Amino acid sequence: MADNVIEHDDDLLDNDILDLEAFNQLLSMDDEGDDDHGFSKDIVDNYFEQARVTFADMDKAFVAKDLTKLSSLGHFLKGSSATIGVKKVQECCKRIQYLGKLMNADGVGQLALDKGLKSPLDKDSKPTASRDARSSSDNKTMASSEKVADTAPREMQDLVSQRALNLIAAELKMGKEEYKKAEEFLRFFYEADMDDDDDDDDDDGEDPADDDKD
After folding, report:
1. One digit per residue, pLDDT tens: the chain, 214 residues?
2. pTM for the whole thing?
3. Which of these, 25, 47, 41, 76, lies nearest to 179 by C-alpha position?
4. Residue 206: exposed, middle, or buried by beta-carbon count in 10 A (0-12, 13-18, 19+)?
5. C-alpha to C-alpha distance for 39 and 166, rounded to whole angstroms
6. Which residues on adjacent β-strands are paired with residue 110?
C-alpha cells in the first residue's frame, strides 16, 4: 500500500472540501510505490462520471416531481461521495434522501407544512351564524364535511410534497456547487502530484551533456 497521504496542512487543502480521513483511506489503497496513485485516481474519475450522471438524473426527477426517485438518487450519490470524502456533497445528498421521503432534512420526524401555508381545512372552518341556521342545513353541511374529509389529506400531501421539492431545489443547487469545487481540487491534486513525480524523475536522470565533459 502507498504511504502517500494528505497531511492536515491548511496551505495544502481547504478542509471544507474533503473529509481528510476518508480521502487518506482511499489513497492508502494505492499500490506501494505507485506515485501516480493509479488505483485511487481511477476511483475518483469514476466518481466524477457518476456524479455528473446522477445530478442529471436528479434534474429529470425534479421536473417530474418524482420524490421517490430523488430520494433514491440522493442515497446513491451520498454513498459515492462518502467513499471519496466529498463531504459537503454527501451532506446535501443525505438531506435530499430524507426530503424525498417527506422527512425533515435531518431525518428526524415527518416534514410538515410551512407555517405560511394554510391547511385545506382552513377554508371550511368558518363559524356558523346560529344554532337554528346549523339545524336548517344539517344535511348540506354533513355532505360538505365528508367531501372535505376526502380531499383534505390529498391536498395536504400535495402541499407537503411541494415544500419538499422547494427544499430539494436548494439542496441540488448547493450540491452542484460543492461538487464543482471538489472536482476542481481533486483534479488539481492528482495533476500536481504527477507533475512532482516527473520533476523527481528528471532530477534522478543523468544529463547526457555530462558524458561529454569526461
Report:
1. 455 555 544 444 556 899 999 999 999 888 776 666 788 999 999 999 999 999 999 999 999 999 999 999 999 999 999 999 999 999 999 999 999 999 999 999 999 887 655 555 454 444 444 555 555 555 554 454 445 445 568 888 899 999 999 999 999 999 999 999 999 999 998 887 655 555 555 555 555 455 555 5
2. 0.72
3. 47
4. exposed
5. 39
6. 103
User: What long-range pairs does 183-190 form, CB within 8 A, spacing at least 24?
Assistant: 183/48, 183/51, 185/13, 185/14, 185/17, 185/18, 186/44, 186/84, 189/6, 190/37, 190/41, 190/44
Chain centroid offset of residue 161 CA: 19
* Distances, alpha carbon 152 to alpha carbons 120, 141, 147, 156, in Å: 6, 16, 8, 6
